[in-house]
Specification:
Strand order of the largest sheet: 2-1-4-5-3
């Protein structure tokens, strides 16, 4: 009986493991992560409506607006026109919202070399 409980406990413990992304932003609004981006080149741009946004050089999957509004951009990157390489999570937006950029959480960011 004890062996059976041990096996079930082990299966449940490892079976519930989730190696997916761990969101840190937008949890209070109940948003899901809809896409993950890695090592994309873009620029930080000051936008009148949204504040500092990320303008990627390429169209990203599940990024309908085309620009990203990062929830966790640090002050050192708040430079208009700064070229960056970034990774992160794109979050869902709801049909009832009027947004100026897609919800985004940065997981990695660094300055890109200017060419």
């Amino acid at each position: 009986m004890e062996k059976g409980l041990l096996v079930i406990s082990i299966v449940l413990f490892f079976g519930c493991s989730d190696d997916g992304p761990v969101p840190r932003c937008y949890q209070k609004s109940g948003r899901r992560i809809v896409a993950t981006v890695e090592n994309v080149i873009g620029a930080i741009v000051m936008n009148e409506l949204c504040g500092f946004i990320i303008d990627p050089n390429e169209q990203l999957d599940r990024n309908p607006i085309g620009i990203l509004s990062p929830c966790n951009l640090s002050d050192e990157f708040e430079i208009n026109g700064l070229r960056i390489i970034f990774s992160g999570y794109i979050y869902e937006s709801f049909e009832t919202e009027d947004i100026c950029a897609d919800f985004f959480e940065i997981t990695e960011i660094m300055m890109a070399e200017v060419q």
